[in-house]
Specification:
20% helix; single chain; 486 residues; six-stranded mixed β-sheet; alpha+beta; six-stranded antiparallel beta barrel
Amino acid sequence: MQRLSVVHVLKTSVRLPKSPLWARALSSNIWTSTSSQPTSLSPQRRIFSAANRTPKAILPPQPIQSSQHRHASTGHENNAIKRTALYDMHLQHGGKMVPFGGFSMPVQYSDLSVGDSHKWTREKASLFDVGHMVQHRLSGPAASLLLEKVTPSSITALEDYHSTLSCLLHPGTGGIVDDMVISRLGPDTFYLVTNAACRDKDLAYLKEQIANLPNPEHVDWQILDDWGLVALQGPLSAPILQDALVGAEATDLEQREFDLQMLYFGQCKHFILNVPSSDCGPAPILVSRGGYTGEDGFEISIPPFMTQAFTEYLLKSAGPDKLRFAGLGARDSLRLEAGMCLYGHDLNDETTPVEGGLSWIVHKDRRVGGGFHGDEVILRQLRPVKDGGTGPAKRRVGLIVEGAPAREGAQIVGGENGEEIGTVTSGCPSPTLGKNIAMGYVKSGMHKAGTEVGVVVRGKRRKGVITKMPFVKSHYWKQAAGTAPG
């Protein structure tokens, strides 16, 4: 993944009483309640208004004055570069800031080169600020109906506190509006994460799709603006987070301690904690096991008033010998080694999930009943020609390229005459393999692993070999395997 003009939430940091009752109420209200009515304990949020079909701000009661200084994102009505809540921390750690997805984001830090940061993540653990991503809370009696319409996922089969990769789809064509992660937090409550660079497009799309429902008032849509989101990735991630949770006296919503060994890839859980040496808490965080690197890890959604304090605590409790910040540069090479797509490069509005190598997100029951946008096109592509289908015209593949690395836009050619058969969409030298890797699309029939092709780099044809992805073995903590890595 990469990345409305709407009314804005308050940018004031809210400091609330230290009370387990408050923490439980907040957790229940923002994450698991299906009521569209704000309570006195509601955090600042946006909901979908049936009256005007657009997210709108619901403001909390007068907040208690806070001395904590936050760098909240600026208005989305203008093109100003925005900042995440961790902007100051990035500068303090020597972050080199660049524009990305409408935000000023760190591409690397002064302590490690991009390549060294990449290797550090594979060997120890890195912390990525992904607060530029768009976090949504979707609830209500029609929430499942909406998601079953706009995605090919089997929402009815998704268990509570489980997550799945999915895609928003264009009606008719089945092209990918955006890729995203869906987590079910209750019978009618979902947490979505979409790409920052697709924000305007995604929110306009969801606004239209909700308005087209038979009962749009049955959907409560909230944009969790200013909530923090960090990705803790690498083989030391689990012990680092476990120690931090113990130090923060974290419990689940039933006020029980929890062993992260029991949280598997594709699952999520709420924790209520106090950040030591601060007055932040008790408050809820949502911990999801997964990530964008191929390593074991977690993505952690954090309330606005606690984002900086929790991140500082996590770095300090682990120490610089185990955990360091990592930027966009390492994130890109890590995700490419893991065979993961970057929207706007490896996926776009014209590409279907089948062409994009994401057929697995079209669940079995959806292949029979359809009922999602673009189902006719996608289901025909899933069926081989011999069975009356069309198959995909192109396929996403991995490549190992000799000589200079192939970058986005490089031609992929076949045969002695150099006929163009595809295009590279992402490419870089692999710090782990010491080879040049790339991802791209080729004509169906040329996609089988081991097929030799040519890749035109700097005007010269280089030898390339179609290669299975991921390029580097993933190390997810999977229940099916019993233990991690798996």
